[in-house]
Design a protein that fits this description.
Elements lengths: L3 E4 L2 E9 L12 E3 L2 H4 L7 E8 L6 H22 L6 E3 L12 E3 L6 E8 L3 H4 L5 E2 H4 L8 E2 L8 E3 L1 E8 L3 E8 L6 H17 L22 H15 L20 E8 L1 H15 L5 H20 L7 E7 L5 E8 H16 L2
Helix pairs in contact: 2-5, 8-9
C-alpha cells in the first residue's frame, strides 16, 4: 500500500496481520468466558505501552524492513502460538437492554493481530526520556483496537491486541502495543511480552517459557460476583455513565488536551526506605515499597490539583515496577502547570526526609 501520513512526522509504511504460528492445537479452548477478575477491568482504558530501543547503527528504513521486520513478525507469530487468545476477538454486547451478556474472548481459525509499520522523523531520545513530554507527540506511536460489526463504543466484537513498530532512522525503533484491559492484567501482559522478546532474541534456543493457563474452572465464584459485575456494567451502559469507556484515555483514538504532559519519576530504594521510616513513625503501620511510591504519587497529584487543578481535567498514574536498582518508577500524566507543582512536591518530599 502507498505510504500514509499518520502525523506531521510519522508515516505508515505497511499494515498487515500476524497469526499464531503454528496454529494452536485442536484441543485448546477456542472461547474463554471473562471471569469476575476480568470484568473488574472491563470499563477501564486499554493498556498502552511504548518500548523504545535506541540503535544508532540503524541507518536506513529499507534495511530494517528487509532484515529486522521479518524477524519481528516471525517471533510475534511464535509467541502468539502460546498466547493465541490475544489474536482473537472480545465479544461485547452490553448494548442489549435487559439482557445480561456473556462476554468472552473467542479465537477462530485465521484470526490475527493487526501490525502497523511506520517511520517517524521525531526525536527518539526526547520521546523516550523521563522528562515531561507532550502526549500529542506520543499519540502517533500507538495502534488502535479495531471494532467490528457496525463500530460504535459497544460493538459486538473487538480486537484484543494491536501492535505498531515505528522506525526512527539512525536512532532506533519503538514498539507500541494496545491491549484490552479485560483480557489480560499487568502480569499476563508482561508474560506475553517477555516470551516474545525471548523468542526474538534467541529463536529456537529460547528456553521453554511457563505457559499461560486457560482453565476458567480454577476461578471459583461462590458469591456470584461475575453476574453482579455484569449487571452493574449493563446498568452503567444504559445510563450512559461510563465516562467514555474505552475511548476516554485511549491515546491511539483521542488526543488528550494539548497541555497534558507525561513524565516518569523514580523512587530509589534509599528514598523508599527513608519514606517508610517516616510513615512508620507517624502511623506505626509498615507499608510495602509499592504502597509508599503510589501513595506519595497520589499525594503529589492531590497537591498539584489543589494548587492548579481543574476538577474536570483528567489525570493518570501508572507504576512500572522495580527498576534494576531496587527502586520503583511511576509515570504521571497531568496538565503542564499541575506537573510543575507535582515535580516541586516530589523534590521537596525527599529534601525533608
Amino acid at each position: 500500500m502507498a505510504p500514509q501520513a499518520l502525523h506531521p512526522v510519522t508515516t505508515v509504511l505497511e499494515q498487515c496481520h500476524v497469526s499464531p504460528s503454528p496454529a494452536p492445537a485442536a484441543g485448546q479452548p477456542r472461547a474463554l468466558p471473562l471471569t469476575f477478575f476480568d470484568l473488574a477491568f472491563w470499563g477501564l482504558p486499554p493498556v498502552q505501552r511504548l518500548f523504545f530501543y535506541a540503535n544508532a547503527d540503524l541507518l536506513e528504513v529499507s534495511d530494517f524492513t528487509l532484515v529486522e521486520l521479518p524477524k519481528l513478525k516471525e517471533s510475534l507469530a511464535a509467541a502468539l502460538h502460546h498466547f493465541y487468545p490475544l489474536a482473537g476477538k472480545l465479544t461485547c454486547q452490553l448494548a442489549e437492554v435487559g439482557v445480561v451478556p456473556e462476554p468472552e474472548v473467542v479465537f477462530a481459525h485465521g484470526d490475527s493481530v493487526p501490525l502497523t509499520v511506520a517511520v517517524s522523523g521525531d526525536d527518539l531520545e526526547y520521546l523516550a526520556g523521563d522528562h515531561a513530554r507532550n502526549t500529542t507527540r506520543l499519540h502517533p506511536l500507538l495502534p488502535a483496537l479495531r471494532r467490528h460489526r457496525g463500530g460504535g463504543s459497544r460493538s459486538q466484537e473487538q480486537d484484543v491486541l494491536a501492535v505498531q513498530v515505528t522506525v526512527f532512522p539512525r536512532a532506533g525503533i519503538c514498539i507500541g502495543t494496545t491491549l484490552h484491559h479485560a483480557v489480560a492484567d499487568g502480569s499476563s501482559y508482561a508474560h506475553f511480552l517477555s516470551t516474545w522478546a525471548a523468542i526474538h532474541r534467541l529463536g529456537k534456543k529460547a528456553p521453554p517459557a511457563p505457559l499461560p493457563l486457560y482453565d476458567r474452572a480454577v476461578v471459583r465464584d461462590d458469591a456470584g460476583l461475575r453476574d453482579a459485575f455484569l449487571r452493574d456494567h449493563v446498568a452503567l451502559a444504559a445510563a450512559g455513565d461510563d465516562d467514555g469507556g474505552l475511548d476516554g484515555w485511549d491515546l491511539s483514538r483521542r488526543c488528550l488536551p494539548g497541555d497534558v504532559v507525561v513524565a516518569t519519576f523514580r523512587f530509589t530504594d534509599k528514598q523508599l526506605r527513608a519514606l517508610g521510616r517516616h510513615v512508620e513513625s507517624e502511623t506505626s503501620a509498615p507499608c510495602s515499597p509499592y504502597a509508599l511510591a503510589c501513595g506519595a504519587a497520589w499525594a503529589g497529584i492531590v497537591h498539584a490539583r489543589a494548587r492548579h487543578g481543574d476538577a474536570r481535567a483528567r489525570h493518570g498514574l501508572a507504576e512500572s515496577g522495580r527498576d534494576g536498582d531496587g527502586g520503583i518508577e511511576v509515570g504521571v500524566a497531568l496538565p503542564r502547570a499541575e506537573m510543575e507543582a507535582f515535580r516541586a512536591f516530589y523534590l521537596d518530599l525527599f529534601d525533608r526526609l
